[in-house]
Amino acid sequence: MNRKKGDKGFESPRPYKLTHQVVCINNINFQRKSVVGYVELTIFPTVANLNRIKLNSKQCRIYRVRVNDLEAAFIYNDPTLEVCHHESKQRNLNYFSNAYAAAVSAVDPDAGNGELCIKVPSELWKHVDELKVLKVHINFSLDQPKGGLHFVVPNMEGSMAERGAHVFSCGYQNSTRFWFPCVDSYSELCTWKLEYTVDAAMVAVSNGDLVETVYTHDMRKKTFHYMLTIPTAASNISLAIGPFEILVDPYMHEVTHFCLPQLLPLLKHTTSYLHEVFEFYEEILTCRYPYSCFKTVFIDEAYVEVAAYASMSIFSTNLLHSAMIIDETPLTRRCLAQALAQQFFGCFISRMSWSDEWVLKGISGYIYGLWMKKTFGVNEYRHWIKQELDQIVAYELKTGGVLLHPIFGGGKEKDNPASHLHFSIKHPHTLSWEYYTMFQCKAHLVMRLIENRISMEFMLQVFNKLLSLASTASSQKFQSHMWSQMLVSTSGFLKSISNVSGKDIQPLIKQWVDQSGVVKFYGSFAFNRKRNVLELEIKQDYTSPGTQKYVGPLKVTVQELDGSFNHTLQIEENSLKHDIPCHSKSRRNKKKKIPLMNGEEVDMDLSAMDADSPLLWIRIDPDMSVLRKVEFEQSDFMWQYQLRYERDVVAQEEAILALEKFPTPASRLALTDILEQEQCFYRVRMLACFCLAKIANSMVSTWTGPPAMKSLFTRMFCCKTCPNIVKTNNFMNFQSYFLQKTMPVAMALLRDVHNLCPKEVLMFILDLIKYNDNRKNKFSDNYYRAELIDALANSVTPAVSVNNEVRTLDNLNPDVRLILEEITRFLNMEKLLPSYRHTITVSCLKAIRVLQKNGHVPSDPALFKSYAEYGHFIDVRIAALEAVVDYTKVDRSYEELQWLLTMVQNDPVPYIRHKILDMLTKNPPFTKNMESPLCNEALVDQLWKLMNSGTSHDWRLRCGAVDLYFTLFGLSRPSCLPLPELGLVLNLKEKKAVLNPTIIPESVANNQEPVNSTNNHGQSVGFQNTFSNSQEEEEIDMDTVHDSQAFIYHHLNMLERPSTPGTSKEQSSGEMNMHPVSAAPLSVFSKESNSSKHSDHHHHHHHEHKKKKKKHKHKHKHKHKHDNKEKEKDPFAFSNSPASARSIRSPSLSD
Amino acid sequence: MRTAPYGSKMADTASGGSGTRSGSKHATTPADNYYLARRRTLQVVVSSLLTEAGFESAEKAAVETLTEMLQSYISEIGRSAKSYCEHTARTQPTLSDIVVTLVEMGFNVETLPAYAKRSQRMVITAPPVTNQPVTPKALTAGQNKPHPSHIPGHFPEFPDPHTYIKTPTYREPVSDYQVLREKAASQRRDVERALTRFMAKTGETQSLFKDDVSTFPLIAARPFTVPYLTALLPSELEMQQMEETDSSEQDDQTDTENLPLHMSTDDSGPEKENASVLQQNTSLSGSRNGEENVIDNPYLRPVKKPKIRRKK
């Protein structure tokens, strides 16, 4: 139903169309961190009675607005600044999430809303009625922005350029409104003129073509003039200003790279590869890079590692590396390739609405995957796909599902698309960061599934079609109304697929895009000797959260003695068992070689297998063409055969994981063989190391010979003549380099019968450190040394403590003393000869925390706190903060928690602020069901304040705070809070529980009429669309969060219609009303209508109640508990919140 | 080339030496006797010349002065002649050297034969034969090597063998790989430890144990103003290592003698300069190349001067 809209083409939610925007920043003050400038938007009204123009703007101080040179009145109101108003005692997250979603909705440009509402001067009304052009000129300034623009100003002597001060735009999703007023939507495209006046020693890098650079009259500054003629959304506009070094790409002169002073040699090396990525994408897409130029800027204190904007990308400076660094090289190249893929899909082609985001993320992720396959090989690609698949499966099973294409509003579904989540998925800005990461991951996996279905050739044709349509459209003038071709929608994309391939992929889309959840298979088999048939049983779990039922084809590969055979099973509702006829007889021909899937024929030692069965191994869904988790049971020898002879790295990795459960000498042998095999993919070998360590620990009593891997390592990396000394480093062979790094780390996990790390292993690692010699190596050994320290940390076991004695130096374990000696030396050497990205410091800090945790060293956060301070390299800070977070948890330290939370509020680096919340969420000091001295009212208030108003400048941070709040306190009112004196606090989600048959019918009856009157009113002013939608909503189950939001949103829409100016409830909310035109008081009438609707829904809900009873049983219990105390609280709680419309259901009003 | 300054220096000291020595009366060494005899002869020459010119008597001071002048004149001829002869790569002056010298000194050579044959000239007896003082044979160790056939005989003799033949004193080199590695490792470790301990002693420290701050002293973490620079740029040591490994593969033995630490501390200054120079060069060359290939990159274009608004 939603897709029909796409078929008809894009319908703008705004009563006007933007065609061109000028952004002029004429003053940037690094000292004061302020920006002064103006914007000018050229808009064409699309309705005759346009008298209000809504734009997005946050943080900006707006001085003056003129429309066609006439002064215009305006209101600035941002409900997201403070989500819940007043000193509400309301502290439950459900309430907050609803209010927050409503607040975001209220300013959502995709719904035609905005923070800035400009009244068109009455003189122009006639002009507007003729649908003539309007020019909106806004003067604004930004002072010490907390989000959107990030200033980096090192505190030292010298001019700003000498100090390397720079500023850049940043943010999560559409965040451009943080630094200039605009229509901050991905669907509102226009052409751009960008001007930046900066210090003569600085460079301003922005989107589009640099037309000219002109000195100001005093010759102290220069102005960069940019033109972007390709229609682009404001959200894809970016800026970076700093004393950058400029490097023109030697292969492609249109491409320019920028980095901070002194880093030019690194920049050269890092970007030397970029042209190959360009070539690859242009070739597979058979399409030129859409913009006339491309710029990469590497900046410090980046918000994210990679941010793609129209014709430029902003990277973290920490991606730069020299030719000596091995580990960072593939990572950085991946980032570059990712950024470039997003140039095509994401920047050039934008999206119609948030629910189409998955197409862009999917395509860019998918072509990035193709690049990976070509660059790093099929093994790496398959490994990556497997990794991503495991991640998304784990996340969905944990949280209950990721929905790629949420449908809101018009749906008839009874279930809220994301009722299992503690946040709304209706807006990108309400999403948890982790959810969004997983969302992107799922999107590209689904694209791969589509490719499996329609072939890569068709897939690329579809992309090419999208791109060529867009590039035709981009060269058109605005008047031709072609620009919407540059926006991709789910329906448009699917139509394209069906046109190109002629295949129907609806079932696939329905399964993976319109629905959340993954598939969980359990497989087992039996071999029927008489019938020579493999009886395969495949069960599914589709009742656990995050799962769904799969019906359709499923590929099973059976390796038999006579060869490998693919079978496609039809998974249906009730059939669990599948009979697969075998091709080979169990009588085996001993001399014969065994053919594999890839045509290779190998000799195998078949003595291990079951004499009666011809089966070597079985794989379910080997191509990963379902988003699934497979738990398959087969005997250990089958896993061993699979590990040794199956050529697919995914199969090998699965076999390794399965073998953990079979600690036998045969498993040991299979793993050691793999470890030694040089043709084997290095990641498989690395994984085998850890598995071998686990097996060795399980077999500790029967283990013979030297500790696992020791002789192997000696053979591979030590001198022939003196096996106790490692060869001088030579990392030319990367595969063995990675193995050399990993083996000691895995070995350190070995434990003897006393559960201690064997002395022999510890000495071995200490010797590796001692004899490490990198002087003749072409590459840096910093990662290797760091991993040796990790190995030391891995070897640490809990201290034997007598009566909790205080840890002092005297009772230090002698082994630990040796370890500590090394750590001290390494950490101190880092001060003199720092390693790349301070990897060694990071490992040392982690190791020290391990020593503290195991009781060898007194637990003390002071060291970590000093490393966590601003001014240390970011990796070091994060490692230190992680240790403090861990300390906070283990020692339940209120002081440290406060210290962390202060940093969340005050740290200059946005990424650190985000990361602290993230780490606290992942390693929480306590959780909702836990008793903890830390859990107190003050903390609740503090966190509440943080998410309510303290993080309004950064969407990501606010969502991080919400995640933390959820982890600590859950969805309902935190248990540590005292009971509210006034009894009831009501929450939407709990309304169902509140329903009291004796009250409800009455209120429904009372309120029936006002509902109609509101609707009529809406109709009368020409908002049929809204009306019909809200009619549909009558069907929605009000118990669910998001539909209710949609409901509110429609009501807001009605309230905000042009003909009734100022009735929207936000205006009363004590926001910054810069220039109030008319702030009408909250209309009781509108409230009433809302509340009445609610009652109506409750009524309706009753009918469905039984159906869903089972599902919600649990919730009900929960709700009843809070029921009474929460009810009465309500009227006081929300009178001014944007969410209030929904929540008001007080007797006084409904009477 | 190399002999010229050496020779002239010798001449200088010879003449200077004679000048100073002449004043000292209480000379007893054979060398002093030699100089005194020479001086006496010169005085006789001056006196006879004076007589020849018709003087009957002369004050002692006048004779001394004239003697001095004569001596310096002759010395100058000698020095200059030696220079000329060495200039042409000979060791012994020839007549032409003397002639050129005299011409150079403004002496009319052609008048010389006539003067030598003048009638009233006086002949003085040759000075008593006093041998050139024998420079004490200092440490002649071994026989001087005779010239090989391709070196002309007039070239100077080889110096004493001990001045150029090296006689290295070998200690039996440690060739055991294990010992070497062991030694290198422990040496490096000692240096590192000493260095870090020193740093820790001289600066602020942190400790893992509250009761003991000296056993495992950690140099205090100090924030940087620009943290990414130290974290990203390869250290000078690494840069140097990279150059070394690129240029030549060294063998194990020499490797063990140089510890990386020494290198880095010694060369840190110039290395830094080099790096920055290198950087400038590369950036310069980059933009230069750009111009050559006519790269039209807007960031390389010159900044325009502001337009002067004349409309107003």
TrEMBL record, chain B:
Cellular component per GO, a single term:
perinuclear region of cytoplasm
Q: Report keywords, A-Z.
A: Cytoplasm, Developmental protein, Differentiation, Nucleus, Transcription, Transcription regulation
Q: Where is the composition biased (Basic residues)?
A: 302-312
Q: Name one GO biological process term.
A: RNA polymerase II preinitiation complex assembly
Query: Is Transcription regulation set as a keyword in this record?
Result: yes
Where composition is biased (Polar residues), the residues are 276-288
Respond yes or no to whether keyword Signal is given for this record: no
Q: Where is the composition biased (Acidic residues)?
A: 241-255
* Domain Bromodomain associated: start-end pairs: 34-111
Region annotation Disordered: where it falls in the sequence:
1-29, 240-312
Q: Tell me the SUPFAM superfamilies matching this sequence.
A: Histone-fold
What Gene3D superfamilies would the database entry show? Histone, subunit A
Q: A GO molecular-function term, please?
A: protein heterodimerization activity
Give a single Pfam family match.
TAF8_C
| Localization annotation | Cytoplasm; Nucleus
The record's family statement is: Belongs to the TAF8 family.
Name it.
Transcription initiation factor TFIID subunit 8
